[in-house]
Amino acid sequence: MFAYYLNLALRSFGRNKALTALMVLTIALGIGASMTTLTVFHVISGDPIPGKSARLFTVQMNVLPDSQYEPDESGESLQMTRIDAETLLKEAHGKRQAMMSAGRAVITPTTAGQSAFRVESRYTTADFFPMFDVPLRYGRPWSTRDDGDHARVAVISSKLNQTLFGGADSTGRMIQLDGQGLRVIGVLDTWAVNPRFYDLTNNEFGDSENIFIPFSTAVDLKLALSGSMWCWGDAPEGRTALSAPCAFLQYWTELGSASDAAGYRRYLDNYIARQHDLGRFRHAGEVQLRDVMQWLDHNRVVPSDVRLQLWLALGFLLICLLNTIGLLLAKFLRRSSEIGVRRALGASRLTVFAQYLVESGIVGLSGGALGLLLALLGLAVVRRQPADYASLAHMDTTMLLTTFVLALLSSLVAGALPAWRAMQVTPAIQLKSQ
Asked: Which of 330, 342, 358, 379 is the most exposed place for a label (fewest CB within 10 A)?
């Protein structure tokens, strides 16, 4: 029966080419606009580490001196001081834990003809790699012992490995970073989590850093930091010294399950209480523990203009559907005499409804195909914008399927009222008028 309805729909399209083309174009414009913004929203609001995000938690503490304490403002925005981060790292109450900071350093290639260039770097601890499921193409990450030994080792990205060593296995090779020699022990495979949830003080979107170095080594070599740093007192030994009154570190822990968060929170509360008892501050102190998705939501990673554009695009789609309803009503009711004859020959109202709903669906799928092309064009325009997330605006399989599902559902919703009106046509009146 569906094949018969399909044949009738194609014949109808042939008799009303201009009207059919207008309906297809109307739906295509709505689908193209909505799928462009929906794809961008999908890319930047998705789970960056699915299957694990509920077990990864970022820790924030307000351990400011009393003169700087502002619970309503500073308590939720502070990063960690080095003394607090290293203490938590040493006590290791989570399954895994890592402290880190971003940096920028200059690579001096050993190959003749290559100029020095600056790269993004990350100074962290050994658990960073297994905790965030970082894949390695060659070699291995460093160990906890390497952290303690201040080992002069590095893990580099595949992009940097291609630039310096032509993509070959470079483990054991030496690189010059800010004039200091480091031995490559690992090369990343393709890895780019977006948003870069583990450090939102730098670029929230983009490729991973080019080089990863033990934090202890980076401090020894006095490598430059990047990102947010706030100091509230003098730091005669340097702002990265263990006792420096500066908050600049991100701290993440992996727990065995999401249900372990309550116990870990109690541990943090007890840590704050110990610091209070030691006389470090007189206020109550504050601690925040958020998993990945809570952290992204708290920091409003999805820009407000993207949310607004999404609602505007969906509103535009709704307007397109209202216009499509009007066009379908005009088209179907012009065929009242045909409907009357079919009803007189024994076709039921449900049969008429199904026939015209199929016709609406075919219009929707045609509009979806054209809308997909418009969406791809729209995403190409987005990628040319200066926004950090622009380069990520690509349609994946999920969004590709969503395009046609949305087009089909939209057309069926738009066609329901015209099809219902068509099945209400009275055969006797139509036959009498003929």
From this structure: 330
- Per the CB < 8 A criterion, the answer to whether 289 and 298 are in contact is no
Take residue 44 and report the two structure tokens written for it.
């930047």
Rounded CA separation 21/17 (Å) = 6
Q: Is residue 41 part of a domain?
A: yes
Mean pLDDT over each residue of the chain, to the nearest integer: 84
Regarding pTM above 0.90, the answer is no
Backbone angles phi, psi at 308, to 5 degrees: -65, -45
Q: Give kind and range of the element (H or E) at residue 174.
A: strand 174-177
d(CA 372, CA 405): 12
Does the pLDDT of residue 68 top 90, yes or no?
no
- The reply to whether 87 and 21 lie within a common domain is no
pLDDT digits (tens, 9 = 90+) for 406-433: 888 888 888 887 777 766 656 545 444 5
**Tokens representing 70?**
């502002």
- Report, in angstroms and rounded to the nearest whole number, the Rg of the chain calculated over CA atoms: 31
3-state secondary structure of 229: coil
Where a domain ends, among 254, 284, 314?
284
- Round to whole Å and give the CA distance between 67 and 12: 79
Residue 56 lies in a domain: no
Token pair in block for residue 225 = 């930091």
Question: At 238, is the pLDDT very low, low, confident or very high (cuts 50, 70, 90)?
Answer: confident
